[in-house]
Amino acid sequence: MWFKNLLTYRLTQEVPFEPEALETALASKPARPCASQELTTYGFVAPFGKGEDAPLVHVSGEFLLIAARKEERILPSSVVNDAVKEKIEEIETEQMRKVYKKERDQIKDEIIQAFLPRAFIRRSMIFAAIAPRQGLILVNSASAKRAEDLLSTLREVMGSLPVRPVTVKAAPSATMTEWVTSQAAEDFHVLDECELRDTHEDGGIVRCKRQDLKSDEIQLHLGNGKVVTQLALAWQDKLSFVLDDKTVIKRLKFEELLQEQAEQDGGEEAQQQFDASFLLMMMTFKEFLPALFEALGGEDIPQGV
């Protein structure tokens, strides 16, 4: 249980998040298979374990973990369009008349409904950790759309979820550019990968991997007006990640020392291993995220919140 990406959301009001009440709320919208004529379904699943007895809320210390699953039927547009075209040509040839937009749309709907039961099914899961004392919800995704799907469904079953993305006072691109040109904040270390963008409209993009970012070549790009929009960083000796200019944390990697500690704490049982990994990850985030927000100029909290 180690998150690979991270989107952070701030609770703007205190929410109790009682495990039993949350369990009941999530159970009102369980994940289920798509019916024959459904394009997609979305609901909550147990983050660990299978079967009816597996809880939908995993509790570890002061932290909660939930998971949602999306199931969707994959119907390639090219297949649908080819079938629509074939049907229209057949009507126009046999009936010697033109097929117009309204009828085209109806034909397309009929073909989709006919094809749906035979469409491939794709399933995807997404995890979210809730830290009530810190007032944070952490989503294991780099996609704001996927995170919002989970949060809006959670809001639906809870009745209310006052939450917004965490933002910082300084522009992340300006801070990251400063770190590459001079020195990173305390406990943060610039690694060997970044993305540079020209600030002018239609400006160029330079992506660097396995590069010394202090080299003359990189510094020349920065001197010519480019800014850092993605930067690979390490924090202490605990994790590494890529930060972008929207404060999305990607490609999170926890160092082996942490993983080994989780293995030792968890013992032999899979459930205990899962719990130990989740708890250690969240305790690390409890230190890391305030340090990151502070390094980026401090969290921007609107007045009245």
From TrEMBL:
One Pfam family matching this protein: RdgC
Location (main, coarse): cytoplasm
UniProt subcellular location: Cytoplasm, Nucleoid
BP GO annotations: DNA recombination; regulation of DNA recombination
GO CC terms in record: bacterial nucleoid; cytoplasm
The organism's place on the tree of life at top rank: Bacteria
GO MF terms, alphabetically ordered: double-stranded DNA binding
Record's keyword terms, sorted: Cytoplasm, DNA recombination
HAMAP family (alphabetical): RdgC (MF_00194)
Similarity section: Belongs to the RdgC family.
Function: May be involved in recombination.
Protein name: Recombination-associated protein RdgC
Species the sequence originates in: Pseudomonas putida
